[in-house]
Amino acid sequence: MNAPAIKTAAPKSFRIKSYGCQMNVYDGERMADLLTAEGMAATPDGDEAELVVLNTCHIREKAAEKVYSEIGRLRRADGSRPMIAVAGCVAQAEGAEIVRRARQVGVVVGPQAYHRLPELVAEAATGRVGIDTDLPALAKFGRLPARRRSGPSAFLTVQEGCDKFCTYCVVPYTRGAEVSRGWSAILDEARALVDGGAKEITLVGQNVNAWTGEDEAGRAQGLDGLIRALDRLPGLHRIRYTTSHPNDMTDGLIAAHGDVERLMPFLHLPVQAGSDRILKAMNRSHDARSYLAVIDRVRRVRPDIAISGDFIVDFPGETDADFEATLSLVDQIGHAQAYSFKYSPRAGTPAATMADQVPDAVADERLKRLQALIAAQQAAFNRGTVGRRTDALLERPGKRPGQHIGKSPWLQSVVVDGGAIGDLMPVEIVAAGPVSVTGAAVPID
Ligand code: 5AD
Ligand code: SF4
């Protein structure tokens, strides 16, 4: 599409603001790689950037409205407007509507088309809006530049999209059908990340445990096979994956939790609700009991595993009894952490037009109770780790001079004195707070 845009000089500097999930963080990094390869410079100070990329999320709340107000506010330090590119799932969902409503936007690019970002930016600089919201299956990966540098902990997208069609969720529409990236492309990227400094890799996908592929010998593999291949990669110390669906927790993947030492003892496995009636209305295709059975099997092979999850309160028709069933399920699981959200109707999804949308006042009260319960479980989990000797992968500076913040194997934030970013520091957990623990360096034996 070639609607007129505001003509600007070709931008030489950029800033990317990513919202939402880990896949967006990964996509944001890849867009930065692309723009850097074109000779543009990343600005640490957003006010200076000549191009601002809003890498948006559409999963909940008035996402699109928030993007429009952000667009309206964006100014450079000298008061001029930067070129604005809207990327991510709001771009996919809204498409050309974005430029109709916000004339300042020069580029609209969906999650499967961002390999074309530099071209679209060049087009916008000539005064024509660059729009691409096609959804080809993973074509972009072959066109992205090789990865060169990495932080100690890196994301690697291996799978995108979703075929599950939970009735509340936009992902099947904004990210498209489930597609897996190829085996060697993933292993090549993993090697490049390790060469670039990564000690930990998190395999990312909307349904990452639905990943399937073939290895070099043409044998069918699942996510567990990929994890075992990564386990043989020299220099890689930690492997994680997110986000998973309970129905895709295969025997092989559960077994990997028991015998792959580098696979960290952490599992983010959303259940969403505890009432079977609500789970059915959500089209989750599992019930509370089958979910607990999966957790039980993972715990049998890896007793210390930290369980995380996602919950939605106030799905249409949720009664007090349904909500109590969620609290009871949470009680039985015992989380190391979990996210809970108020149901947010998304246009185009089946749940948005269901009867009995729950009033806000009830929703707020239920959300508060659920969050209090989860917070108590998280604090208890943290207390339970005091006295453990483990290691922390240091990722960023702490508040005090010399202090660093890292992650434990159980994905707790660990605050330590000393060390350096990138260290896998042997620590003893000596104190626990509600959302983090304190580690003391222990000598390496
Ligand atoms: N409303 C509220 N929460 C939602 N999620 C997905 N769609 C919605 C919605 N319409 C939550 C689910 C999912 C997480 C990423 O976001 O819990 O697991
Ligand atoms: Fe959305 Fe359900 Fe797919 Fe998760 S499994 S991305 S909640 S449709």
Can you describe this structure in just a few lines?
The protein has 445 residues and is an alpha/beta fold.
SSE map:
Elements lengths: L12 E6 L3 H16 L3 E2 L8 E6 L6 H11 L9 E5 H7 L2 H5 L3 E5 L7 H9 L4 E3 L20 E5 L1 E2 L10 H4 L4 E2 L2 H13 L4 E5 L7 E3 L5 E3 H9 L6 E5 L8 H9 L6 E3 L7 H6 L6 H14 L4 E3 L1 E4 L6 H14 L5 E4 L17 H25 L4 E9 L5 E5 L5 E5 L6 E9 L3 E6 L4
Helix pairs in contact: 8-9, 9-11, 12-13
The site of 5'-deoxyadenosine (5AD) has 12 residues, from strand 16.
Summary tags:
single chain, 445 residues, alpha/beta, Rossmann fold, pyruvate-formate lyase- activating enzyme, OB fold (Dihydrolipoamide Acetyltransferase, E2P), 3 domains, 6-stranded parallel sheet, 5-stranded mixed β-barrel, 13 helices, 32% helix, binds 5'-deoxyadenosine, binds iron/sulfur cluster
